[in-house]
Amino acid sequence: MKSFFATFLLSAGFCFASLPGGAAEEARLVDEPYGVCCHVTRGEKWDAPKLYPLMQEAGVSMVRSDWDWRYQEDAPGKFNPKYDLLIENIFRGGMDFLPILPGNQPKFGQWAWNHLDDFGRFVRRNAEKYGEQIRYWEFCNEPNAGGAWNPTAEEYAPLLERAWRELKTVDPELQVVYAGLAGVPVDWVEKTFKRGAHRHFDVMNVHPYCSVPEQMPQLLQPLQELMKQYGVGDKPVWISEVGWSATPTPAFYLDILPEAVRTLGLEPADIRIALVCDAKRGFIQGMDNFSAENFPEFAGIHRISLEELKTLDPKKFPVLIPARHEKFVLAYIPELVRYVRDGGTLVLPSGLPFYFDMQLDGKGGCREVQVNDKYMADFHIGWDAWWTNPAVPKAETNQRPAAAFREKFRWSDKDSTRAGRFLSTRNLKPGDRFIPLLEADGENGTFPLAGIYRLNSDLKGNVIMMTGANIYHTNREKQGEFLPRAYLCGFAAGAERIFWYCFRDTGRARNHFESHFGLLDRDNRPKFAYQALKTLTRLLPGGSTVPRITMRNDICLATWTRPDHTRVWALWSAYNRQEGAPVTLRIDGDVTAAMNHLGETRPAPNSGEKVTATGSILYLVGPESVTFSGE
Description:
The chain has about 625 residues and is an alpha/beta fold. Among the domains are: about 250-465, 3-Layer(aba) Sandwich (Rossmann fold); about 550-630, Immunoglobulin-like.
């Protein structure tokens, strides 16, 4: 099978076929390609002076954070000098700064796209004051994520144009960075381009969060093709957020799910859970990062592809988890309905299921389309929120097990985030019933956050569902393995700068997905990912040639040349292959150093020697040529 790396790199002009030895004129990384996100103008502002030296030690040169209009300009034309001290502290810390404007907005400027003159004054004042020190300016964070506080694509285009005009008036060399988009929403970008946005930015910018790093090129390719169509294909692309949360296994999987299964008359110890894992085809919201250790009470797991859903037998695999959050390939909804109709138990662990359709292109890529709750009634499930039902609270309190389960599992309210969305029985049919598992209080009563839809109508199976963010992403070890692979894949795919999200954990709550993305924990202790970044920035410093990657049978081999003319190679196995894969290396030239992703010394292999490729990169420093063959 032709790899998506090969397809992408060839289309981008990389000399993929001549990997060993390299080309005479290879593209080079920018001098300072490594950034991090850190809330140094918000939650980390007091600790920031302690964090800047740790950033520099890891090879990071630029920090990204919100620059809140609300706190900077108290009233029209009245600026707060104390808030300006935050940005001065960044410069004293030796860091470059990528501000995200407008951030939180003042009442007189809500919302910025409706107050372009006020917004323009705010932008110009910043450019005049800090333009010599801040050369790149990002406008809006994830506006495509929805909500009244975010512009639509149609509203974003004039906002970007106004920002462009203000910055370029102060200094034509100031760089406008397009909004950091949630995912890579090509349709949303094209809507802004149709309104002229392609003429008003210098750097494109996305957040290609995915299941495994090797999916990043396939996410970026449609965007780059769109940019070419609009004549801006030569503009750089940045990734201003990417990362993996090192979340402990959520209590939903450890405590709630086993009890829910027992309630249905099943014994977890007798069940292997079926998980949909199909990253190779472009389904990047599957359960690829899950292992059996996340289900300690069950007999194990069984990974299946999307196509295998068509023949999945509920008697053999009575429990199925199709996705880890709200995105699914909705072309396979009939297969899921058939599974539940025939008695299977569908587990929908996080958020509002099937809210986004991942439309596969057959080449390893996909487009993401929001469809809301279009398919929930097919499974007799439903939801409520304060904006759909005025009786529902905006934020629940006192999360706890439902009465029938208070002696069966524990749930710590302090370790959990507010869901804000609740389960509804509106789509039940005669014969169906609903069993609450987890509930919370609101001003108008008690509302379910998790429950069992026990179906006995046209559907004969069950649905176990929870609206909270129970997104187990990966553990700390795997986060450390993913980091260098993400940078290598992103650079190889054409990203000029990449910012890890985020530098330090933002909280301590066990079940809070957002709390565990950091390279450091909340007490500033480095995680494996921090050491992995230090190793990578030493082996792949700015000014190196852009990594080129070949991939065959899930084995990846990357290579680049450092500014000191030393050749470096990186070998690993993609798709979270637990057991590793044996490969035989052919090496031309001396290996002067061999190490893993953490910089720990490994035996230098000889040419013809067999090694095991795993998710942990094996770096080889020095040889002129490395090739591999597998079994």
